[in-house]
Amino acid sequence: MYTKQEESKQKQAFWTAFGQYMKPILSADCEYVNWINYKTGIPGIFFRMNAGHKQASIAIELTQADIELQASYYEQLQGLKQVLQETLGEEWQWQPLTEDDYGKTISRITTQIHNVNIARQEDWPLLITFFKHRIIALDSFWSMAKYGFER
Q1: What is d(CA 16, CA 129) in angstroms, rounded to the nearest whole number?
Q2: Is the terminal CB of the chain with fewer CB neighbours within 10 Å at N or C?
Q3: Tens of pLDDT along 1-50?
């Protein structure tokens, strides 16, 4: 068992290593990007990567306070589902209305892997591979799709 402090250090070490690994990779628009804290440029649309002690996930999350706007964005993404799947090379889970860790209603498009632990350094290559491919694919998709979300 790890203390909360040790867990925090392990997570920080992983995300630092992942950030350094991804730093030289340019976005689809040939720009430097902070892959860990990816900016979509649209308020309330986030690409989130998460890793814990049993699984890791990556998601597109819609967190608009205006639930009608959130639903509109979700519908727009559904209209682009085929393009998204082709860009990702896989199908993700679509959750039109779900709750985040804080009880807020969000919409989410996500995929995950199980039986990985961010605290085990031997799992880091698998985690890096999982995140790298998908965040680059999301960036490629977003490079084409973002203009339809600007208001």
Answers
A1: 15
A2: N
A3: 667 888 889 899 999 999 999 999 999 999 999 999 999 999 999 999 99
Dihedral (CA of 95, 56, 141, 38) sign? positive
Residue 59: inside a domain: yes
Angle between helices 124-145 and 81-88 (to 10 degrees): 140
In a 3-state reduction of DSSP, which class is residue 106? Answer: strand
Give domain status of residue 3, yes or no.
no
Question: pLDDT tens-digit profile of 85-139?
Answer: 999 999 999 999 999 889 999 999 999 999 999 999 999 999 999 999 999 999 9
2 part of a folded domain: no
Question: 10 Å Cβ neighbour count for 39?
Answer: 10
Domain holding 138, by residue range, is: 8-149
